Inverse folding.
């Protein structure tokens, strides 16, 4: 199956962005943590507003679904405000969210690398998917088991993950 030129170009661009993010995270770890913290709070605030707006505007939805959306919206707004008001709690939340995101990405990479669908790509690309997936899972589990290791370690692991995922994306765009 031949990839279109725009998909290949997009994979190369995503790879370059991930590698650049790796360098920035290593160079400015404090800025990285603060940026991620603010992104988390603003995403929660935006999600809350969007859910509440949907609950008000979706007249064809059942009352139960509209109420559920409103409750989720209010909870998201509260969480967003808490992250902004209590940054240490927000940082701890961020550590766990990043760990779970790395875990999910790692599992998906392992499944794709080991699946029959991966036979559409070369053996070394499958191996790269499995290696990147395994490292992502390992990194996430260490953070989940030992959260006290600290943000500096997480930033380093996040940087390495960005670097490996960027390289994988670029290779995928070239292949």
């Amino acid at each position: 199956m031949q990839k279109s030129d725009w998909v290949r170009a997009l994979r190369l661009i995503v790879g370059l962005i991930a590698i650049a993010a790796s360098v920035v995270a290593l160079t400015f770890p404090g800025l990285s943590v603060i940026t991620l913290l603010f992104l988390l709070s603003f995403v929660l605030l935006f999600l809350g507003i969007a859910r509440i707006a949907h609950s008000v505007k979706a007249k064809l939805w059942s009352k139960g679904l509209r109420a559920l959306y409103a409750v989720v919206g209010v909870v998201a707004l509260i969480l967003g405000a808490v992250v902004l008001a209590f940054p240490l709690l927000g940082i701890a939340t961020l550590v766990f969210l990043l760990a779970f995101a790395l875990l999910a990405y790692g599992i998906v990479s392992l499944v794709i690398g080991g699946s029959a669908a991966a036979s559409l790509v070369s053996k070394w690309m499958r191996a790269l998917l499995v290696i990147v997936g395994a490292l992502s899972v390992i990194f996430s589990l260490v953070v989940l088991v030992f959260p006290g290791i600290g943000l500096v370690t997480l930033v380093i692991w996040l940087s390495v993950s960005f670097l490996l995922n960027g390289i994988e994306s670029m290779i995928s765009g070239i292949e």
